[in-house]
Amino acid sequence: MYKILTFNQIAVVGLERFPRDRFEIASEFASPDAILLRSHKLAAEEISPSVKAIGRAGAGTNNIPVGHCTERGIPVFNSPGANANAVKELVIAGLSLGSRGILPGIEYVKSLGDMQDGAELSKLLEKEKKRFKGNELSGKTLGIVGLGAIGSMIARAALDLGMSVIGYDPALSVDAAWRLPSSVQRMENISSLFARADYITLHLPVLDSTRGLVNADLLANCKPSACLLNFAREEIVDVAAVESALDSGKLRQFITDFPTPNLIARTGGDVILMPHIGASTDEAEDNCAVMASEQLVDFLENGNIRNSVNFPALYLERSGAARLAISNRNVPKILSSVLDILADADINIHDMLNKSREEIAYNLIDLDAKPDTALLDKIRGLDGVVNVRLIA
Ligand SMILES: NC(=O)c1ccc[n+]([C@@H]2O[C@H](COP(=O)([O-])OP(=O)(O)OC[C@H]3O[C@@H](n4cnc5c(N)ncnc54)[C@H](O)[C@@H]3O)[C@@H](O)[C@H]2O)c1
Ligand SMILES: O=C(O)CC[C@@H](O)C(=O)O
């Protein structure tokens, strides 16, 4: 039985993807085979030696020590695109909240709870509504930083709203480029995007290269009427620089899914704060849980890798009597040494696949006979081999 250790609330429809005759799921296990989580900040010490894989039901993996997992030969999976529609819909709501007096208007109406006379009430509302007038999104320019799953969906929705869309993504994949509407104008640098946009929305991962990316220098380029939306990660924005930009009138509004105490303490309506609910819909939680769970099942039972953030994608149809899944440092001669050991033991290879990604290489080798423990230990003992798994 494979043991799956869960953190956070994982949608039931996802947990149901683990066949109960072969998988146990619990929030406490001494020696789990895999970890399935959402936003729980996973410490390296929480990953016991038995762990073979980690599944993130969501997009961002900055809560997982990915580098440490790579060192240990543990693939980390995420669920790209599975919650993109949920984030898109909330960002569109954010754009509306940032352009009209919706929230202050609602607060104002709530403050009139003591008024009993309907005619008086409606007279007052008609008089006061000018205080909550806004602007239309149509005709404005939206700047999208990060044109992946979420960014491209927002681009399409914003174009439908009549906005002009400009985008910046220095690492755009070919697939993502295909998904992008052709009328999105790609900017050469992020400063030009900040200078031109009326609304700027961030949809990139937090990486060493993106931590604090939105800083005072960038904000100095903004139109004073600009509204910045951060539904990506808190760390991408230098929040102190945003507060200064708001204070000095260099930025009109900040809308974020990642509140800080200082932002909460602000008065004056120039921030709109949400409690990290970008992906909080039944649909997104189901999609993420299903995708992450299916990927873990396929990895544990077959060694296949889909949507890993640190391992190469690799799929091999099962054949032969047994399968070896081997991770090794991405250096020459390791695979040939493995093959020599198998040949010396007279074990024929039925099929195999080998791929590498940065410092790690991964191999699936289907064999005509099941190797014994001594042979597996010999492979484990090769210099550069990180881990070896026999999948019966
Ligand atoms: N608020 C939420 O609940 C919520 C939900 C989902 C995702 N997110 C966050 O949003 C991020 C994006 O999600 P996604 O599903 O669109 O991911 P994605 O991988 O499909 O897209 C991310 C894009 O960012 C681009 N990128 C990388 N570095 C960049 C840089 N320096 N400047 C501009 N672009 C850069 C990549 O090339 C990629 O195209 C996630 O990493 C996660 O942190 C938040
Ligand atoms: O799991 C969640 O609720 C949030 C997930 C979101 O931040 C993501 O990166 O996909």
UniProtKB/TrEMBL annotation:
<dbReference type="GO" id="GO:0004617">
    <property type="term" value="F:phosphoglycerate dehydrogenase activity"/>
</dbReference>
<dbReference type="InterPro" id="IPR029752">
    <property type="entry name" value="D-isomer_DH_CS1"/>
</dbReference>
<dbReference type="InterPro" id="IPR006140">
    <property type="entry name" value="D-isomer_DH_NAD-bd"/>
</dbReference>
<keyword id="KW-0520">NAD</keyword>
<comment type="pathway">
    <text>Amino-acid biosynthesis; L-serine biosynthesis; L-serine from 3-phospho-D-glycerate: step 1/3.</text>
</comment>
<dbReference type="InterPro" id="IPR045865">
    <property type="entry name" value="ACT-like_dom_sf"/>
</dbReference>
<dbReference type="InterPro" id="IPR006139">
    <property type="entry name" value="D-isomer_2_OHA_DH_cat_dom"/>
</dbReference>
<dbReference type="Pfam" id="PF00389">
    <property type="entry name" value="2-Hacid_dh"/>
</dbReference>
<dbReference type="InterPro" id="IPR036291">
    <property type="entry name" value="NAD(P)-bd_dom_sf"/>
</dbReference>
<comment type="function">
    <text>Catalyzes the reversible oxidation of 3-phospho-D-glycerate to 3-phosphonooxypyruvate, the first step of the phosphorylated L-serine biosynthesis pathway. Also catalyzes the reversible oxidation of 2-hydroxyglutarate to 2-oxoglutarate.</text>
</comment>
<protein>
    <recommendedName>
        <fullName>D-3-phosphoglycerate dehydrogenase</fullName>
        <ecNumber>1.1.1.399</ecNumber>
        <ecNumber>1.1.1.95</ecNumber>
    </recommendedName>
</protein>
<comment type="similarity">
    <text>Belongs to the D-isomer specific 2-hydroxyacid dehydrogenase family.</text>
</comment>
<dbReference type="Pfam" id="PF02826">
    <property type="entry name" value="2-Hacid_dh_C"/>
</dbReference>
<dbReference type="InterPro" id="IPR002912">
    <property type="entry name" value="ACT_dom"/>
</dbReference>
<dbReference type="GO" id="GO:0051287">
    <property type="term" value="F:NAD binding"/>
</dbReference>
<feature type="domain" description="ACT">
    <location>
        <begin position="323"/>
        <end position="392"/>
    </location>
</feature>
<keyword id="KW-0560">Oxidoreductase</keyword>
